[in-house]
Amino acid sequence: MSQAQLAGEELTKGFISQVESNLVRPSVRSLQIIATRLGKSLDYFLGDAPLATEKRLAFHRLAAEAAAERHDWKVVRTEVASGLECVPSKHERASLLRLLAQAELSEAKHEPAFDRITEALGLIDTTTDAAEVARLQHLRGVAYGQLNQYLAAAEALEQARDTMERHEVNDPRQRARILVALGTVYRRLNRTAKAMQTYSSALDLASASDELRVAAQGYMGVAVSLYDSGELDAAIHNYRRALDLFERVEDRGFELSVLHSLAAIHFERGAAAEARELAERSLALAKLAGDARVEAISQVILARISLAAGAAETALELAKEAEKALAVDHVQRADALRVIGSAQDALKAFAASDRAYKKSIELLAEMDDRPDRSAVAAEYAKKLRARGDVDAAFHYLELARGR
Q1: What average pLDDT does the segment 28-54 reach?
Q2: Helix 292-308 to helix 272-289 angle, to the nearest 10 degrees?
Q3: Are the C-beta atoms of residues 125 and 136 closer than 8 Å to each other?
Q4: Could you give the CA distance from residue 312 to residue 318 in angstroms, rounded to a whole number?
């Protein structure tokens, strides 16, 4: 590895040369960057040399934060455990517990995550640690959102936003993250206008702080809100802007999400060729990234395209395979079941079609996802009417209308 390669973007070749020549002592932050890039621990460089507990704690916290940014949750757990052994102050302990809660949420372990957040909030208060309190409130809102408890999520995220504003916390990046999450919750609660306003505020903050990833998430949120409002052209425009930024920051997860969303919109507009190209691109990238969820979502889109082309058996096979992989994602699983129901109907397997449609509606009702539930109910009603089951068709039309 050359000096320039070791320096990367965070350090300089000249600085590495001075360290090697013993002309400067690297800071904890610089040493953390060097250690991470070389795949070594702090002790590798220090040997038996004593290190003040405060500096060792700072190293472990910084290493955990860096690992959290790149979603390396195994390293987060290791560094947090080492940091907690240093007997941190209340503030430092709260920060470490927040990082540990993030790791818990990455594995959908919500109960221990809430326990960590509650413990951390009990250690600090807004008068002295407003920024950390806001981060914890944000994380609590994200956790509630993952559980589809959107009212509780909105309350926690609004608290986080208000904490930052009331105590004038100067962290535009964190504020933008809170607003993006809050916009998403508002959209889930069918508060489309409020969601758009919140996403726009997040975009302004992200642009001002040159935070490309958060700006991309803001564009994505705006795109989804426009899609909900039926403005497909404007939605595509904002999805494209989000995709460009996600590609620049090399965020594969969100890039995949935008690709399959674009594929779905193009299909709705009747552009089957463009939709297939985008879905196949998303599927290929998902396989490379080992993202089974996005791979399954892409299969659902391809199943829908196959069904529209008259290949009901192919559609059914793709959708069934995808539905198994989406067991814990109720929204996407409901979408897969919707395609299964439609394919079974086309194959005259009406009992199987009924089961799929009813299960899809049941899942969406559990999450109080009214727009999607109405769409599935309306589609099912149309199938029932074509079969001659007018009473059942009327029932599901009423459900589609929110009655």
Answers
A1: 73
A2: 160
A3: no
A4: 10
Tell me the two tokens of residue 36: 């991470």
DSSP state of 24: S
What's the rounded mean pLDDT across residues 366-375? 83
Q: Is 124 in contact with 132 (CB distance < 8 Å)?
A: yes
In sequence order, the 6+-apart residues with CB closer than 8 A to the CB of 298 are: 259, 260, 263, 279, 280, 282, 283, 286
* Encoded amino acid at 16, one letter: I
The enclosing H or E element of 47 equals: none
Q: How far apart are CA 336 and CA 157, in angstroms?
A: 31
Q: Is the pLDDT of residue 314 over 60?
A: yes
Amino acid making up residue 160: A
Alpha-carbon distance of 378 to 401, in angstroms, equals 8
Closest by alpha carbon to 76, among 107, 110, 55, 38? 107
Contact, 321 vs 336, CB < 8 A? no
Q: Tokens for 84?
A: 């907690």
Report whether 253 contacts 285 (CB < 8 A).
Answer: no
- Rounded distance between C-alpha atoms, residue 99 and residue 63, angstroms: 11
Amino acid in the structure at residue 38? L
Cα separation of 135 and 329, whole Å?
26
Give the residue ranges of DSSP H helices in 8-87: 13-20, 28-38, 42-46, 53-69, 73-84
DSSP-assigned letter for residue 321: H
Neighbours of 248 (CB within 10 A): 12
**Residues 6+ away with beta carbon under 8 Å from 361:** 334, 373, 376, 377, 380, 399
Mention every residue, 6+ apart, whose C-beta is less than 8 A from residue 116. Answer: 97, 98, 100, 101, 104
Q: Which two tokens stand for residue 313?
A: 């058996």
Q: What share of the chain is helix, strand, coil (3-state, %, to 5)?
A: 80, 0, 20
The whole-number average pLDDT for the span 237-259 is 83
Task: For CA atoms 76, 79, 85, 88, give the dihedral sign.
Answer: negative
Name which of 319, 352, 318, 317 is nearest 335 in CA terms: 319
Residue type, position 346, single letter: A
Question: Is there a contact between 2 and 19 (Cβ–Cβ < 8 Å)?
Answer: no
pTM over 0.85: no
Whether CATH 1.25.40.10 fits 125-231 = yes
Domain ranges of the chain: 1-36, 125-231
Using the 8-state DSSP alphabet, how is residue 27 labeled? Answer: P
